[in-house]
Amino acid sequence: MVNPLTEPPSIRIGPAGSDGRGYPKALAEIARLGLDCMEVAFTYGVRMKPEMAAAVGEQAAAHGIALSVHAPYYINLAAYEEEKIVASRQRILDSCHRAHLMGARCVVFHAGFYQKRSARETYRLIRDQILTLQAEIRRAGWDIDLCPEITGKPSQFGSARELLALMADTGCGLTVDFAHLLARQQGQIAYDALMPALPDNLHAHFSGIEYTAKGEKKHLRLQPDDFRPLLEALRRHRKQATIICESPAPFEDAVMMKNMVDKEIPTDSGP
Ligand SMILES: [Zn+2]
Question: Which of 28, 42, 125, 139 fits a disulfide with 78 by CB distance 3.0 to 4.6 angstroms?
């Protein structure tokens, strides 16, 4: 039997980034709001000093807030230029270092672009870079899972199929951005077909999303009706999940999601 006082919640909810507050204030706010997790976002570069990462980790641990890290956006592990690949690897490793200091396990990134390459060739290049990164992470002694993210555009590497193959081939993790999946699939997710292929303990992103035939256009505020099918599917398939809210109001919408997680009765629960 699950004791809610000692067991971590099976579905954790929290915001992406500090929403301009700075991390010490953001963590205090997350604790006050009763949220469970936060993703530290190194959007434009890893500028957080190691001492700050350690302090953020201590503060999060004191509040029981689980942390993850999003590496900078400017990453392309399949770039044509070797120096761009080296710089991409360094951004990921710097993110892993700060994650290690924070006690965060999952490091999220968008792995790369096809440009003029075939999907197969792009896959091989990215797979080999992931293996190189994993060797460096092992050498450094960090307990970190690389979690490449399902991306929002079919022109960008990172379909569910590609990332599940990468997970099987390298043992890396993955980040399931359900909003990106909706954008790739024109608003349709066959949850009952997808869920069995996903890990039992998921790292996920969600938000509202605007899309066109070319995929993701922009992230939107999240509505309860967007979240309900996902929440019900997670419960139906007995998944544990850490869901990071990436809407333009990540704290407010995370609170809405958390209220739904706490209040809505699992569909398959007995008396
Ligand atoms: Zn995302």
Answer: 125
Query: What does the radius of gyration of the chain's CA atoms come to, in whole angstroms?
Result: 18
Helix (H, G, I), strand (E, B) or coil at 63: helix
Confirm if 123 and 162 have CB atoms less than 8 A apart.
Answer: yes
**Distance from the CA of 180 to the center of ligand 1, in angstroms?**
7
Separation of CA 3 and ligand 1 centre (Å): 31
The tokens of 26 are what? 């953001």
Rounded Cα–Cα distance for residues 39 and 107 (Å): 9
Residues 234, 224 contacting (CB under 8 angstroms): no
Crossing angle of the two packed helices 23-33 and 250-263, in degrees rounded to 10:
30
- Domains of the chain listed by start with CATH number: 11-263 (3.20.20.150)
